[in-house]
Design goal:
The strands form 2 sheets. Strands 1-2-3-4 form a 4-stranded antiparallel beta sheet, with no helix packed on it. It has one helix at 2-11; strands at 31-35, 38-42, 51-57, 63-70, 77-89, 92-101, 106-113, 121-128. The longest helix has 10 residues, at 2-11. It starts with a helix and ends with a strand. It is mainly beta. It contains 1 helix and 8 strands, in the order αββββββββ.
Length: 129
């Protein structure tokens, strides 16, 4: 019985060690999607650029910033960018987000891409106050 325990203990996978936060910096409102063996994430950037950093990981612990969903502020928006939500449909990627229009109205807008890593194209507001 002791030998069996020793064999199981030696073949058991090592436990992953990590320390929170796993992504350094300020990343509120994160959204994460799994695509194959990779995870893609974005988060609120507030008034900081770039708008909605785009991050990639293979283990949910080690993240690499690969770019941004919106490298520049869209012409229709003045600022106040919040809460990106990444999703996939028919191998197309959508990131829905909230931003303020020049007229002051908050809007839900979308950016699209053919790959989770982009590049993303801003499609503008879908609905507004």
């Amino acid at each position: 019985m002791g030998f069996l325990f020793l064999v199981l203990a030696r073949t058991a996978p090592a436990q992953a060690m990590y320390q929170n936060p796993v992504i350094a910096g300020d990343h509120p409102d994160p959204s994460i999607i799994r695509v194959g063996k990779e995870y893609w994430a974005s988060s609120t950037a507030s008034a900081w650029g770039p708008l909605f950093p785009l991050l990639r990981s293979t283990d949910l612990v080690n993240w690499e910033q690969t770019g941004a969903v919106l490298p520049h502020r869209p012409d229709w928006a003045t600022g106040d960018f919040w809460a990106p939500e990444i999703s996939e449909f028919n191998k197309h990627y959508f990131i829905y987000f909230v931003a303020r229009q020049h007229n002051g109205r908050l809007s839900v807008a979308v950016a699209t891409a053919d790959k989770p890593g982009g590049p993303y194209t801003d499609r503008g507001p879908l609905v507004a106050q």
